[in-house]
Design goal:
Among the domains are: 1-30; 164-406, MetI-like (MetI-like fold), CATH 1.10.3720.10. 68% of the residues lie in helices and 1% in strands. It has 16 helices and 2 strands. Helix 1 packs antiparallel against helix 2 and helix 9 crosses helix 10 (259-283).
């Protein structure tokens, strides 16, 4: 019996009984004339050939052509780059994706304009400072009194005797008193708008608060002189009677035109600035912090004290400093309200006395700028106001940057 017949016999036996199949396999392995491939071939099961259906609209290929294309496909996978200058290479280049050229001209122009704007602002501030110093320096050198400690202001004639002690005290006192009255109210309004009131109430109320910034200074000055001054006069008299032993609250001749009334007007004028900035800072408190405090059982005030106020502390401080800079430079309202002290009168540190600030002094005596010496004296006072305001705004900027860095 040949090897083929033995393989067929073993295959039939294996198909009939598992024991016979195992015996046939062992016999095939022991017979060197029988190939193991034939044993494996005998176990092969014919699989149905899948049929390929052409898609709708696709051309139907002849089986012979399809077979030749199938056998030729592996050979087409290896692409041969055409020689340079041939038509095939140019066709492939045309069929590729063309990237648009990226132009940096717009970025360069915008960067140049942004840098130029920054340089212009810095140059403008330096120019103002140098201008004030150059015009004030001759009068400062000719001054016969101490510029920082003297209260005299004599610029007529050949002798110059002027100082800023009284002006500095009135300016700082009215501004600080305005901040003491305005900041708590502004923070309370900002907390109410962001944490307590519904949106349908917060929107119109915020609009009304912001409208205060649009009222002209002269309107506030006239209102303070004719309405607010007489209204606060009894309160000023009562405070002077009860706390008159303190020099800061001693009585004065006319409390209606005092630093106290001017401070209240300044507080109303800077209220929109502090409120707007504080409101924006409080509204940006992370919601996760608030929800975490509420989930721990905190009350609404505890949420504000532990989450909202710590997050917005730097913003409130910077807003207060900006409002202070606004109060330091106010001119018209203070000029209308404050009564000027008589020449040679004793200095009174009371908030119920009159006085002059830097801005009101310069505005009230602008008609005396008829000589370089007089002009230099007033410009020297303006230089001090410029430096003080610049320092206040610089401190506000540093506090705001420090708060944003910690956040």
């Amino acid at each position: 019996m040949s090897a083929t017949e033995i393989g067929k016999t073993g295959t039939r036996a294996a198909d009939t009984d598992p024991q016979d199949r195992e015996a046939a396999v062992q016999g095939a392995r022991s017979d060197p004339t029988q190939s193991p491939a034939q044993v494996h071939e005998s176990r092969a099961v014919a699989m149905p050939v899948p049929s390929v259906r052409a898609a709708r609209g696709a051309p139907v290929l002849d089986p012979a052509v399809a077979g030749s294309a199938t056998t030729a496909a592996p050979q087409d996978r290896t692409s041969v780059s055409p020689a340079p200058g041939t038509g095939t290479g140019s066709a492939d280049k045309r069929s590729g994706v063309k990237l648009a050229k990226i132009s940096r001209t717009g970025d360069r122009v915008f960067g140049f304009l942004a840098a130029g704007s920054g340089v212009v602002i810095v140059a403008l501030v330096l120019f103002v400072g140098i201008f004030l110093l150059a015009l004030a320096l001759p009068s400062l050198l000719a001054n016969q009194d101490n510029f920082l400690t003297s209260r005299n202001w004599i610029v007529a004639g050949d002798q110059l005797r002027f100082g800023i002690a009284g002006l500095l005290w009135t300016t700082v006192l009215s501004s600080v008193l305005a901040m003491v009255m305005a900041v708590p109210v502004a923070v309370g309004v900002a907390l109410f708008l962001t944490q307590y009131s519904p949106r349908r109430v917060a929107g119109p109320l915020s609009f009304v608060v912001d409208l205060l910034a649009a009222v002209p200074s002269i309107i506030f000055g006239l209102w303070g002189l004719t309405v607010l001054g007489p209204f606060l006069s009894p309160a000023g008299s009562w405070i002077s009677e009860k706390l008159g032993f303190i020099p800061l609250f001693s009585a004065s001749i006319d409390p209606r035109s005092s630093v106290f009334v001017a401070s209240v007007v300044l507080a109303i004028m800077i209220l929109p600035i502090v409120t707007a900035i504080s409101r924006d800072v409080f509204s940006q408190t992370p919601r996760d912090h608030i929800e975490a405090a509420l989930s721990l059982g905190a009350t609404r005030w505890e949420v504000i004290r532990t989450s909202v106020l710590p997050y917005g502390r730097s913003g409130v401080i910077s807003a207060s400093m900006l409002g202070l800079g606004r109060a330091l430079g106010e001119t018209v309202a203070v000029l209308i309200i404050l009564s000027q002290a008589a020449p040679g009168a004793d200095f009174t540190p009371s908030i119920f006395a009159g006085g002059e600030t830097f801005a009101s002094k310069i505005a009230n005596n602008a008609s005396e700028f008829d000589s370089p010496s007089k002009t230099g004296a007033y410009i020297a006072a303006g230089l001090v106001l410029f430096v003080v305001t610049f320092i206040v705004n610089a401190i506000a900027r540093m506090i705001a940057d420090r708060g944003s860095a910690k956040a």
